Amino acid sequence: MNELKALEALGLELPGPWYIAGSILFSIVGYAVYRRGKKTAHPSLKWTGVALMLYPYAISDTLFLYLAGSALCIFAYYC
To answer: Is residue 11 part of a domain?
Structure first.
């Protein structure tokens, strides 16, 4: 427990269950979009899929995770 408190003192904290669920969900959707873009030779779909798979590593707030993931999913749907 001391290690956890030391990390929290440095400003690092473990993600919550909603963050982990959203990260897994958007990564799975991103993989499906990537496969569809690769199969149809549509580069914007392929790169949107890559973005969906990788952006959770750059965002640490749960709200922004869902907002960015939703925006990318809407873009992939209309693309």
So the answer is: no
Whether residue 36 is contained in a domain is answered as yes
User: Is 50 within the bounds of a domain?
Assistant: yes
Residue 1, pLDDT > 70, answer no
Token pair of 70 as six digits: 């939703």
The residue type of 70 is: S
> Residue 7 carries which DSSP code?
H
**Long-range interactions of 55-60: CB distance < 8 A, separation 24+:** 55/26, 56/22, 56/23, 56/26, 56/27, 60/15
User: Does 1 fall in a domain?
Assistant: no
Summarised one tens digit per residue, pLDDT across range 46-64 is 999 999 999 999 998 899 9
